[in-house]
Write a structure and sequence with these properties.
The complex is a heterodimer of chains A (318) and B (359). Chain A is 47% helix and 14% strand. Chain A has 318 residues and is an alpha/beta fold. Chain B has 3 domains: 121 residues, Rossmann fold, CATH 3.40.50; 60 residues, no CATH class; 155 residues, Rossmann fold (3-Layer(aba) Sandwich). In chain B, strand 1, helix 1 and strand 2 form a beta-alpha-beta unit. Classes of the chains: A alpha/beta (318), B alpha/beta (359).
Chain lengths: 318, 359
């Protein structure tokens, strides 16, 4: 049996996990290809005109998978381990997907406010006629793989932060950062302009970093000061977000501010309701810390030339 | 602390009831300006561009009141659950402070306990005074909603066109002026007497249209270009379930959500924030009640309503009921809405006729 996974939106929240989970269970996994022009066009055609660009891209991936596999996996992500909610547009994804495609949708609700992920995975396994043992093993291996990748990412960050080039922080959702077609190869463009782009996802969250590594990386100081001293100098204020990415983004920015960054760019897909809120506080935080800030909106009509000009101009101001 | 002079978010005719609430607490109130194209433009100018429409509108309503001397703003958060409404207060406070307004912002959760403590803090009113003010508030609120419902019935049936709306406006301004609770029953009788004197054609066969969608746009006639009375004057009976009482009932009786979820299970198996689920539930309900059309009102890019719109469209395709979805924002023009409504009314009439001829 082939299980299809759209390579967009929620896929990037947990890349590789689902792929490896289903493969460990003995299924064949069909991942839709990286976003391309046809996929975006397909998505835009069927999507509600007012929904966000990222959602439209997702519909495109779904349509690409339609008919090519036996099941399409669309999880219903509701709340994460900190009991914070995901974007409300994710709540209805499986239902809307079912309207769109003929292939049956495989779905399960993940709500950490109510239960452990393990239970949800077991229910998912039941739908696929797999017993608890098999699920446990498959999930275990998949989690390990995910952890490995995260650690690698963290090391990359410390390598990047030592770089002599001008460091730019790219603030956005993972589905905008890692999808090269969607963000118009922003990373490549910035590298060509001589900058060192750092994805906000790569910045470790305060609690995640082991103290030693953390202190050693800050200008080589031996860590005589307390962490509090480091953070007290900043002027931070934002409301308590009930969205997981809101809290996460702001916390990561808080960490990023401890390093010498030349500028920050926020990428937001057109129609993203959550970004309308978060952008205000992201912008405020960077401005208060006197870091140049650029806000870019992307959608299906964004032209590459326009983005290029704006990036060049931004690089000149830094 | 300075003496608080209150202003608050405007919300259609309900503004009257809110004004009374604060006045009864012994607070000085400057009501927010009535929504017009200018307040909308002013609000949109300083609001974040991508934010949803009701936030820009309410922001625009504060500005004239702030100029007149108001220094404290009341804002309820958490009306919408998972959606952006939660951050209205935070964003409005930020925006207003950035534009140089020295204000005290009261942002609190819409739970009875929080509302009580917020009111207590600002007004120093006694427990009984708050209870009494609350009671008067609810009386006015219920009356406003009732008058609106009655008007929905009278409008398409009136013989002298425009009579209902005239009486409605008069009644609302009288209600706004009413300060003492003991005069309330008299005014209530007076209003209903006047309404019952409207000459109407009984037993008229009328097509029925329901309004569903986002609560603010559905309930505020100044935002939705008076869809309700426009349809009424064209001889269409309008219904809507969405109002403050409906929302409060859902807050007080959480199982109502559970019932709604059960009804819409074939279409959507989860909440999507705001009143997304309610729109589906209402649409299914109205189809069962043999309505002739559904109008879906939403602010441009409203997250919950945009999420459920494909589902509403699916129901529309399955049942064949005429369906019109109107998104509103600061760039919506009245002429455009009028044209779409006129065309829609034709479709509704045809649908109504064809249903009759089948029987």
């Amino acid at each position: 049996m082939i299980i299809g996974i759209p390579r967009a939106l929620i896929y990037w929240k947990q890349p590789y996990f689902w792929e490896s989970f289903f493969e460990n269970l003995g299924f064949k996994v069909l991942l839709s290809p990286p976003t391309n022009k046809e996929i975006v066009e397909m998505g835009v055609k069927v999507a509600d005109p007012e929904t966000c660009f990222s959602n439209k891209v997702y519909w495109g991936h779904l349509l690409w998978l339609d008919g090519k596999c036996d099941l399409i996996f669309v999880p219903r992500l509701k709340a994460n381990e900190e009991k914070l909610e995901y974007c409300p547009k994710f709540f209805g994804l499986p239902d809307l997907a079912q309207i769109l495609v003929k292939t049956p949708i495989l779905t399960e609700t993940f709500d950490r406010r109510k239960e452990e992920t393990k239970k949800a995975l077991e229910r998912l396994g039941k739908k696929l006629k797999k017993n608890k043992e098999e699920i446990k093993k498959a999930a275990g291996t998949a989690f390990l793989k995910e952890k490995e990748l995260k650690e690698k990412e963290e090391q990359e960050f410390f390598k990047k932060i030592q770089s002599k080039k001008q460091k730019l922080v790219l603030v956005s959702h993972p589905y905008n950062l890692y999808d090269d077609y969607v963000n118009l190869r922003m990373k490549e463009k910035l590298e060509k302009l001589g900058a060192e782009p750092i994805f906000i996802d790569e910045v470790p969250i305060k609690s995640q970093i082991s103290n030693l590594k953390y202190r050693a990386s800050i200008n080589g100081s031996e860590g005589e000061e307390e962490d509090e001293v480091l953070f007290a100098s900043q002027n931070l204020n934002w409301p308590k977000f009930h969205w997981e990415f809101g809290k996460e983004l702001m916390e990561r920015i808080e960490v990023a501010l401890n390093y010498r960054i030349a500028g920050a760019i926020e990428i937001s897909s057109f129609g993203c309701g959550c970004d309308a809120v978060i952008k205000e506080f992201v912008e405020k935080t960077f401005k208060q810390n006197r870091i140049p800030f650029l806000y870019l909106m992307i959608d299906e009509q964004t032209g590459e030339a326009g983005i290029q000009t704006r990036l060049e101009a931004f690089m000149d101001t830094i | 602390m300075k003496k608080p002079i209150i202003t608050f978010a405007r919300w259609g005719n309900y503004t009257i009831a809110f004004k009374t609430l604060f006045e009864q607490l012994g607070l000085e109130v400057i009501p927010p300006e009535k929504t017009n194209s200018q307040t909308i433009a002013e609000g949109a100018k300083i609001a974040p561009e991508m934010y949803c429409f009701p936030m820009k509108v309410t922001l625009g309503n504060y500005l004239p009141a702030l100029k007149k001397g108001a220094n404290t703003i009341f804002m309820v958060q958490n009306v919408g659950g998972s959606c952006r409404q939660r951050y209205y207060g935070a964003i409005q406070e930020k925006v207003l402070k950035e534009t140089g307004h020295d204000i005290n912002f009261l942002d609190f959760r819409a739970a009875p306990k929080d509302i009580y403590s917020a009111i207590k803090k600002i007004s120093n009113a006694s427990f009984w005074q708050i209870i009494k003010a609350g009671r008067f508030f609810f009386k006015k609120l219920r009356l406003i909603e009732k008058i609106e419902k009655v008007a929905q019935y009278y409008r398409p049936r009136e013989i002298e066109k425009g009579m209902t709306d005239k009486i409605l406006t008069e009644s609302f301004s009288k209600l706004e002026e009413l300060k003492k609770e003991k005069d309330f029953p008299k005014l209530k009788r007076e209003i209903f007497k006047k309404l019952s004197e409207i000459k109407i054609e009984e037993n008229k066969d009328l097509p029925k249209v329901a309004l569903v969608g986002e609560i603010y746009t559905v309930c505020d006639p100044t935002i939705n270009f008076e869809v309700e009375s426009k349809l009424g004057r064209e001889g269409v009976e309008v219904h809507r379930e969405m109002d403050i009482t409906y929302h409060l009932k859902k807050l007080i009786f959480p199982w109502k959500d559970w019932i709604i979820q059960k009804k819409i299970n074939p279409y959507l198996k989860s909440t999507v924030g705001g009143h997304g689920r309610d729109a589906i539930y209402e649409m299914l309900h109205y189809i069962k009640e043999d309505f002739d059309g559904i109008i879906h009102l939403l602010p441009f890019q409203c997250m919950p309503e945009v999420t459920v719109r494909p589902i509403l469209e699916k129901i529309h395709r399955e049942s064949g009921i005429p369906f019109l979805s109107i998104s509103l924002d600061e760039q919506t023009a009245e002429a455009g809405i009028d044209t779409r409504l006129e065309a829609f009314i034709d479709v509704v009439r045809n649908y109504h006729q064809s249903k009759k001829s089948k029987i």
